[in-house]
Specification:
Elements: H1 2-43, H2 47-77
Helix pairs in contact: 1-2
């Protein structure tokens, strides 16, 4: 019984890790598309729209990445 539970738990965790990795890939793709949009808007003089995209990129993509980097640096220094 315990072996079955271990197998099921292992399979479930593997599935969750796969889902997280897929989510990360999607997030990266969306971030890249937003960065491209930001670039095009800036090139066409749409600075107000570009600023809105920049805010989204900062809030949803850049800040979490920077926070994670800081967290990892803190673990390395410990």
């Amino acid at each position: 019984m315990r072996e079955t539970m271990n197998t099921v738990t292992s399979q479930y965790l593997t599935s969750l890790v796969g889902a997280l990795e897929e989510t990360d890939r999607r997030r990266e793709a969306i971030g890249a598309q937003l960065a491209e949009l930001e670039y095009v808007l800036l090139q066409t003089g749409e600075t107000e729209l570009a600023a809105q995209v920049t805010r989204v990129l900062s809030d949803k993509y850049y800040q979490p990445i920077l926070a994670k980097a800081e967290e990892l640096r803190g673990h390395e220094q410990s």
